[in-house]
Amino acid sequence: MQLFRSLCFSLLFALAACAQADSDITISEAWARATAPGQKVAAAYMNLSSKQGATLVSAECDLAGSVEIHTMTMENDVMKMRMLDELALPAGKTVSLAPGGLHLMLFNLKQPLDAGKEANFTLNFRSANGEQKQIRVTLPIKTSAH
Ligand SMILES: [Cu+2]
Q: The whole model's pTM is what?
């Protein structure tokens, strides 16, 4: 019983440590595209992956009034953007938000997105066990991915 209790305790401790370090969700190659003069919307891109599986439910950006999760598909030779309610991250798989496909769409820009500057994002996830998770990331603003 004593052994069981201490095992439980260390397991709990390990879980807590994991949650804090946020070792489940990885965000990489994130960037926001610089806007052209007069442009009122913008897009941001990144690679998302989750070891346990998670769902991106919403996002916010300090430079935009609102952020939507969008997908882009070809329909009868026309590029169409569609809003997604949420974006599933299957366990262990990298989901790429990249030009021509999935992206975060920024609306009601508070200021132009100038190359060389940064935009702060808050990404809201739901983990596989239903827990809400907020991750803040700072994205470089660039004219292209490279
Ligand atoms: Cu879009």
A: 0.82
